[in-house]
Amino acid sequence: MTDTLTRRLIKELMEFRKDPAPDLKDLTPEKEDDILVWKAILEGERDTPYEGGQWKLRINIPRNYPMAPPNIKFMTKICHPNIHFKSGEICLDVLKNAWSPAWTLQSACIAIRLLLSNPEPSSPLNCDADAETRWATNLL
Amino acid sequence: MSTQPTPNQVHAAEVHKTRGNAYFSARDYDAAIKEYTAAIKEKLEAMRKSESNKVGGMRVKHIMIRPLSKFLLAAAWIPHQHAHVLFLSLPSVSLCFTYVYATSRGLQLCNLSFQINQNPAVSVYFTNRALCYLKLKKYDHVIADCEKANKFDPKSVKGHYLLGQAFTEKLRTDEAVNELEQAYELAVKANVTYLGDIIQALLNARKKKWEQSERERDKRESDLLKYLKGLINTERERQLQKVLAGKNPVAATFSKFVSNSTDVDRLDAINKAHDEKLSALEQVFAQADENMGPREVPEYFLDKISFNVIHDPVITPSGITYERAHLNEHFRKIGHFDPLSRKECSDKDLYPNLALKEAIEDFLKKNGWAVDY
Q: Considering only CA atoms, which of B326, B353, B352 is closest in space to residue B339?
């Protein structure tokens, strides 16, 4: 008898393989023997500065998932106001207090990809990139 | 003659239980079983004393308790009735006495109800011991202990939950599903934390039940297949014999040396026709098997949180249906909103989605494989 968490993750994996979101190149457990650590590869959205780039994410899944959000970090360096340049930590409400168990690993990755093209200057983790964004916005 | 249960006895039972719990945590199940057994013994002894006391409170003058099959027989005085109780039957574990007493108007039958035999504490000792037996895979012991626990406390969630699991292992699947459904009902009322585990056990029991009926079906089908193949082969033999018998013996012997082409052709044709029938029959059976194979469960039967088939569907004001246990866990751990619509919502706003429940049950009846989807 597999536990609820494992069953849900297996279904998420099947769901991704059956119907993968565009720009989400990969979403799979990193190692065969540990279903709680996944990796994902994001492709930059077209017509944005991120087009053509690929970013690797590491997803750590807590034991009480989906009652708690997954912990997702950028493994590839990225310059973005809501992403910590060194640690890869992401500031995104749905990964924090706005999480809902109806979200999936796939939908969380899609939210991150959308964050790339729609930065949230009000909750910066990368102050320099944030200052640049604000400055650029002011110029416009 | 009745004695008070000594406070020591009640205390001793609790001490044994605490020790048993410690052994259980250390996974020393045999030692834990010994402690729980001692706890049960102390507690039952204490109960027996307080029991005779209560009867004594009605000034029972003389009690002879003798086990007589399942009943205890006693003769007692019930002073307020001024009647002589001739016969008192006390089912070993139940809520009531039946006694017959003599009055001026003749013999009377009366039922007395007592709370004495309902005792959640002793039920816990039994379920704790049952859990040890479950870990040791001694399922018969689990069943015996849980049945006792349920008698002492019919509302024991653990009693029904463990009993259901043991029944599942013993492949008494109908009883397993029944017990686990009771456990689920009680657990919802008692608001226990392991509701999800109960649902999982229920799914497991349902799956076993399905597998069982599948095996029976398989056996029935392979018996039928064997029988039909036998019929075809008998018919083949009959036709072959007919061709061979149609020839005179001399020719039959002669044909061994000089091949009679028409006869050989006829025999070949008969063999070929029957081989074709056999392979067609096998194909039909194989196709029937394929139809039974795994398919997809419709998305609308799946819980949006666990992605499992829903057992107890509840609907939110947004019209979205979830598994009750998982949605309540979400309310407790994350917040009072609908996980999908994000509209405010709490357990008081939920309604059971009965139509969906019926649809799912109907679907599972026809597609038992799906319970573990």
A: B326
